[in-house]
Amino acid sequence: MSGADNVVWLGTPAFPEAARTALADPQLRANLRRATATIRDRRLAVAAELEDWEELRETAATIKRHTLRHLDHHLLRLEKAVTAAGGVVHWAADAAEANRIVTCLVKATGESEVVKVKSMATQEIGLNEALADAGIRAYETDLAELIVQLGGDRPSHILVPAIHRNRSEIREIFRREMGEWGAPAPEGLTTEPRDLAEAARLHLREKFLRAKVAVSGANFATADTGTVVVVESEGNGRMCLTLPETLITVMGIEKVLPSFADLDVFLQLLPRSSTGERMNPYTSLWTGITDGDGPRNFHLVLLDNGRTATLADEVGRQALACIRCSACLNVCPVYERTGGHAYGSVYPGPIGAVLTPQLVGVENAASLPFASTLCGACYDACPVKINIPEVLVHLRAEAVEAERRDRLLPTSEAIVMKAAAAVLNSPRRLAAVQRLAAFGSRLVARDGRIGALPGPFARWSATRDTPVPARESLRAWWLRTRTPTNGDSRTTAEGKGRR
Amino acid sequence: MRIALFITCFNDTMFPGTGRAVTTLLERLGHTVEFPTGQTCCGQLHFNTGYRPEPLPMVRRFAETFAGYDAVVAPSGSCVGMVRDHHRVVAAQYGDAALAEAVEQVVPTVYELSELLVDVLGVTDVGAHFPHRVTYHPTCHSLRMLRVGDRPLRLLRAVKGIDLVELPDAESCCGFGGTFALKNSDVSNAMLADKMRHVQDTGAEFLCAGDNSCLTHIGGGLSRLRTGVGTMHLAEILAATEGDVR
Questions:
Q1: Out of A19, A417, A425, whose CB is closest to B58?
Q2: Looking at the complex, does the CB of residue A176 fall below 8 Å from at least one CB of chain B?
Q3: Strands A213-216 and A220-222, sheet pairing
Q4: Torsion B54-B58-B63-B64 (CA) sign
Q5: Residue A211, exposed/middle/buried by CB under 10 A (0-12, 13-18, 19+)?
Q6: Fewer CB atoms inside 10 A, N or C side of chain A?
Q7: Interface of A with B in 294-333 (CB under 8 A)
Q8: pLDDT tens for each residue of A332-347
């Protein structure tokens, strides 16, 4: 399976169609609205507590920019430090290679099951499916990931993968599926959060105590010390990181930080931006292996899978600075109404709309850069100052250029855009079109409004009336009432600005 | 002050009343308004839809047409955002050094209406009179590209007779987004529905904003639902004086 197949879920329709399905689900929309609004408000409150919040953002952006510019250097330092601390570093160019490495490492232990702590990188490469093909069962241990896995579902949010599920849906999934995967749900399970959490705890406990191999992701890795960092809320991750004999971490190459001291910045920004907490409940750090403490073997798989190609794009590379906090998702009005599945990718929301097309090639996810109104709320929220609207527009141009290259005939949109450019490049042609529009639209207008419109505007006019173009354009009015030269008119504006 | 009016192609064609209002307003404040007839469009439609080289002639035309004025004003936050943030990008990528220089010269003179009034002309009370209940929608580009902040609200608060009511969830996008409304019409409609609900909750007679494109989208929906809520560009409220009928 190639990386592209996994970052973008095969068979997922383009964004507008997928969004239509999501919009038709009122329960989904209610779940999303409630969840994003709650996290959004919490984030604003805790960010406002820090007087140096804007400086922190600037510092983080600077560190990320610098790191990405010298990524090769820092990765080699990381490899050296991890190796010196008793770990083994593996390099994976794509998803297939990463999956092969992890599968071989698990097989070498003789085990046929692994526990996992939430990792987007392993979602990205489809590791669970690859392990299943090799006869190895992977158990998700993050509560939300567990809900997603038991539900035979896809994550819908970076931080809250089961954001699209409410409590009664979760109870049904637990009752139906837990027995299939291990300890069944207790009798009489209610929808109370405490009850649901207890059911998950019992279900997971037996897995933690049995597991010999764990697979994790990484939030950060520091090049100077070879330390890997995972932050989480429930402690299930810490169980995975400490109990098994073998720990395999799969990490995107962009997650490296130059120095341990940089964590000071990012461990302040991440929890505040993601969960709206001052500090996340569990921060686990480990450096290679330690005698008598934790796993006996540690493997770090450094995953490229399209990241080097992304790095080569001067505008687009800033997407690699993402620390997966999901602040952009929670403020995005488009995400709030569609949820993550519509993006057809492990990485949803505004960051997904810029990251996914770059990782898989824009022609394979061409609808995503257009899945935004460019309202800019994501840029304001991003703790590392990724200019998401800038990258979106940049990728739109890449998508249009790819389309131009690959097609024999231009799209109807391209024809319209060409015609529009011809009109807008000439005041004379623009004036002619204005006269034509004013005349033509009056034939179809009623009460100064136009109802149904043809062709590409049909969807617009299905829910909105369209105003009639003015009988006299501003240009025509100016020429009629004022000295028809290039400005320099002294007469008073006649008529009031009204419509 | 000698001020050039950049009316923008959309306002020129659909809402010339907004341009007349800007003219009335600025002349009332004692300034000279000129309309350079060589103007057309800022290039935003093409740029934001991914047609990147196409705006080059429009960028060139803009820089040539609007060179040498004390100030250039446009009653559209998003078009001013295009000029301020992207004309340099287009010029650098597809133009020549002379164009890049011309763009550098003209861009600092270009203002959105509320910026010009408050920052350059130093007025917040423009002598307007508008005895109606009004709610204000801060359009995304004014809010986040231009950072006009509370300038429009300061101007509106100084209008005599106005009953200015706060719009709930004002800062969330209305769902227009240019070609987004066509390409992702269902999401756009869902966003519009929420915006309209908030507007109706205020009980306002008029929804005011600094961009007629957003107002066309929201107003089109309000009209279809026969809500009776009208839309008005900021310039038109600021141009209104006692004795005007509305």
A1: A425
A2: no
A3: unpaired
A4: positive
A5: buried
A6: N
A7: 333
A8: 999 999 999 999 999 9
